[in-house]
Amino acid sequence: MTGDANAPVCVLGTGLIGGSLLRAARAAGYPAFGYNRSSAGVLAARGDGFDVADDLPAVLRRAAREDALIVVAVPMPAVDHLLADIATFAPECVLTDVVSVKGPVAEAVARHGLSARYVGGHPMAGTAESGWAATDPELFRGAVWAVGVDEGTRAEPWRRVVRLALACGSTVVPVTAAEHDRAVARISHLPHVLAEALAVAGAAGGPLALGLAAGSFRDGTRVAGTAPDLVRAICEPNAAALLDVLEETLTVLGAARDSLRADGTLGELVDAGHDGHTDYRTVRRWEITDVRPGEHDWLARLREAGLRGGVLTALD
Amino acid sequence: MTGDANAPVCVLGTGLIGGSLLRAARAAGYPAFGYNRSSAGVLAARGDGFDVADDLPAVLRRAAREDALIVVAVPMPAVDHLLADIATFAPECVLTDVVSVKGPVAEAVARHGLSARYVGGHPMAGTAESGWAATDPELFRGAVWAVGVDEGTRAEPWRRVVRLALACGSTVVPVTAAEHDRAVARISHLPHVLAEALAVAGAAGGPLALGLAAGSFRDGTRVAGTAPDLVRAICEPNAAALLDVLEETLTVLGAARDSLRADGTLGELVDAGHDGHTDYRTVRRWEITDVRPGEHDWLARLREAGLRGGVLTALD
């Protein structure tokens, strides 16, 4: 499928994202194996014929032996523990992750001395479901997959991570950790916060309000059905960026409130929101074709292209 | 289909809701005709074989002659003009509406001296589309349809309105105008406001953020795709109730911001939001079977039942 489809992928954490990645990687021709902390998760994956174990040192020794690409696929609070063992048992492996924030992962990776072979990743896919039972080898098809282009990133590990993302059917968006985290605060973490607040407001109206609720409430609250621990694990590690955009949004909503109270109008908010929705509906992803990994300024050029909506759909 | 399926329905305004009602009423066996202000709308409806005209006095005279049930199906800003002509040409007809707020319509109806035969209505159905082209005779099937039980409502017109809602495939929620307006501020108008604010926040992140957006942003902003004039016509007439719940929500979001800043946690919001979403997912509609329209205290008893989630799925 890809140039290094014979080098294995080692997925640590076989929940919705990690388990789907294990399936997608194998479907794309990669030898793939994994680790899961819970024996129930291990049994579920094995029951479907996947090579998953709960002995982390053993899995990591195998990854080192086979020069596997290691993918950290656990929620942020569990990342540090995994990295400690990776530093012990597989410090030379190329390392990526699919965690929902990138700055805190990169900092943890640096603390464990693993930065040289690390390239952050974040596939923008998921459902309100979780666990092996929800995994789907097609989860990443047609999705975008953020891949890090921070200063110091090396070309060889970067290519391996990008190849895996492309092999899973995704389009790659090159982005630095800080810019990723600011962007996802806007389009992933703020949606969670607003959905929770909307669910609170609806439920305060009791059975009458909830019984009258139709499409706008259903869609607006959908992600409030996500398990609270998972929402916190996604949003809280990105507190700084989320605080900025939450503050912005409180200002926007406060101005709408003032305008509705003083003049009976929501015109300014509604026009701006409709314009924003139009931007979203019409945003064009364009293909970056003129940057070769490793050449002069490749990281800065990819970063700049990513900010303008550039993506990668193939590698050489 | 129903007891008075032979008495015609006269729909004023043949956009998404009114046009769909014209289709649904005819499909349920009602003779049905209508009025639309724009000749383009009239031609579109006629092209599909519907009896729609742009001469409002003539349509209303016919409604009076045929003892039609008149349905006002225009946005709030256009209601007053229609009521003036109804008071002139068809003051004795039973009158209902499908406008998204009930208090302001009831006040306008009272100003025109039409309260005696008026029963407010609001089918909780719609899409981001509008106009005749989007109409669908099945739009109301499986939806809930709020029907007014304000003091002074008379049993005979009430039964006619309820029969029409049931014939269109909806379940009827009995509710007073004030309680309706407070409820829809929570589950319909606040979702619009939050969707607009989310679209603004996402677009402020430029092509990078919008290009990374996935399911949570798509669902959270869906109704921001609605035409701005329509959103304003839906939300602004309910300013008082919307201001109350917007204020509540600003408080909830402000507390979440404070908690995230001070302690790095969104726990309180996320737990409350998840509980609210669970309430929504598990809200049970139960059937009201022990209230006969016109009997002692029927309006108060229906109102009380509606507040507790009671609905009507049949009439006698």
UniProtKB/TrEMBL annotation, chains A, B:
One of its GO terms (biological process) is tyrosine biosynthetic process. Residues 7-291 form the Prephenate/arogenate dehydrogenase domain. Keywords: Oxidoreductase. SUPFAM superfamilies: 6-phosphogluconate dehydrogenase C-terminal domain-like, NAD(P)-binding Rossmann-fold domains. It comes from the Bacteria. One of its GO terms (molecular function) is NAD+ binding. Belongs to the prephenate/arogenate dehydrogenase family. PANTHER family: PREPHENATE DEHYDROGENASE, PREPHENATE DEHYDROGENASE [NADP(+)]. This is Putative prephenate dehydrogenase. It comes from Nocardia farcinica (strain IFM 10152). The lineage of its organism: Bacteria, Bacillati, Actinomycetota, Actinomycetes, Mycobacteriales.
